[in-house]
Amino acid sequence: MMEESSSADQLRRLLSDLYVQPGVTGACLQLGNIVLVHDLPYSDARVTDLAARIENLVGSYESVGRGIWQICAGFENFRLLILCHSMMRLSLLLQPGTDPSHAAGRGMHLLMEVKNFAPRQAASPPPPVHSEKETKTGMPREEFERLVSGLMGRVTGSAQAAKLIQRELIANQINGQLDPEEARSIGLTILEHIPNRGKRAALCSEFLNALKP
């Protein structure tokens, strides 16, 4: 719990650094369609919907082999700058007339900084309410391997998928059950090896949905 809190605090501090750049009035950091942290002047529900729309937009380009790293949309009262790096998306709310190039440079630097610990943070959203028995049971290792292997098998060979899965399970000393946090974290780490960003984002989303009770 302390590790999760520390990661969230670090993400918030990084977002606060963006305001050194004049014109930035809000920011949202997401991994795929999962919101990691935001300080946009909207409700969490609206930001979650925005994140899903952004992921669909980016995915529509990537699905036809057109990787994209920056989108800037102008509206009457603000500009929305979307920056992409791997599966990370950083959306910046800018005042009209703000030069997006300066904000983009600072934003891309932030994305590079958060790359190492953001997947872990995304893998640990507030846990759903379960009974004590359900929490202790978790997911059997064999079931986890079948799930991740099935997803990885769509984009890579079965032997390579099995090797990646076993390597992460051994590194995390998993011998039996995986608790929900372990399953999310390890699964996302394995899926990060998928080179195509569009397919990776889609399979990560499917993986997380499969973990829901």
Q: How would you sum up this structure, described in words?
A:
The chain is α+β, with helices and mostly antiparallel strands. It has two domains: 2-116, 2-Layer Sandwich (Beta-Lactamase), CATH 3.30.450.30; 132-211. 54% of the residues lie in helices and 17% in strands. The protein has helices spanning 2-17, 44-62, 100-114, 118-122, 132-137, 141-152, 158-171, 180-191, 197-211; strands at 24-31, 34-38, 70-74, 79-85, 88-94, 139-140, 177-178. A five-stranded antiparallel beta sheet has the order 2-1-5-4-3, sandwiched between helices. Strands 6-7 form a two-stranded antiparallel sheet. α6 packs across α7, α6 runs parallel beside α8 (180-191) and α6 packs antiparallel against α9 (197-211). The longest helix is centred in the first third of the chain and has 19 residues, at 44-62.
Question: Keywords for this structure?
Answer:
disordered N terminus, 213 residues, five-stranded antiparallel β-sheet, 54% helix, 2 domains, alpha+beta, two-stranded antiparallel ribbon
